[in-house]
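Incident review: delayed structure delivery

Summary: a single-chain prediction request sat in the queue longer than the usual turnaround. Root cause was a stuck worker, restarted by the on-call engineer. No data loss occurred. The affected request and its eventual output are reproduced below so the record is complete for anyone auditing the incident later.

Affected input:
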Amino acid sequence: MPTSPPAASAVLLVNLGTPSAASTRAVRHFLGQFLHDRRVVDISPWLWFPLLHGLILPLRVPRVARRYAHIWMAGRGSPLRVHSEELAAALAQALPERRVALAMRYGQPSIAAALRPLREAGLRRLLVLPLYPQYSTTTSESVFDAVAADLSAWPQRPQLRLVHDYHDDAGWLDAVTQRIAAQRAAAPGERLLLSFHGIPERLIDAGDPYQRQCEASAKAIAARLQLAPDQWAIAYQSRFGRERWLGPATMDVLRDWARQGIRRVDVACPGFAADCLETLEEIAIQNAETFTAAGGASLRYLPALNADAAHVRALAGIIHRHDAGWAE
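Output delivered after worker restart:
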């Protein structure tokens, strides 16, 4: 990353986070932090914490650690952190007049750690960009909570702006579409599945706009790709717990397609800015096995935008628009 400019104006990119290693100890710490967030699990702590520490973490941690081991990048670490750092570095080059900092909502570098050098450098204006194209209280709002909590301890807070979402941003939609089209150009699968991370239905019932934004993104991408209604579908992955989550479930759609005689499918995950456990292991490994076990021939996962040049241009455009016209 080039030499940082003065910290009068800074952009804080925030991604979900990752364990520091593919070990049970690191995964337990990461999952514990993630599942203690009331935005993620809003059950009473008196009920939730004993269940989390007595049953859920002991059962899930070894399994999740093995999943991380399948995708860990030798000599580099977690894919999500590697790709997020490359994206932040590329944005810093594209935005030489601003500081660009990267934080993780859970794990390292934490939001507090990323903000500390900016505070010491006399930061006056802060734009927070969660790397979640679609807004949800479980993701973007959790980031805003953490930023606000850290800034509350500053003797003089900077001016603050928050990017709520960018699910319908033309530059981002073009970047996603171009990436998918390029990956499918030589031999497209018979159908394209656009898979988004799921959330509980009760959050949608309470007013969370996430499902509406996912559907709007998916329809816009399909339209740009000129796909007929029977050539694509939207689904939701990564269900956790027993309550009702958004559907249809990604695995269910893939099973149904295989049983219908669909042999080759492509899966893209437009809600993920950087490849991670949910794309590289859940989709590319678990869901691929589900599809072939149900009778399909092959599932091809289409990688996320990561530090793709079009992604950098799209995010730089979003930053320019949100970062204009600060009061002096």
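Verification: The mean pLDDT is 95.
Action items: add queue-age alerting; document worker restart procedure.
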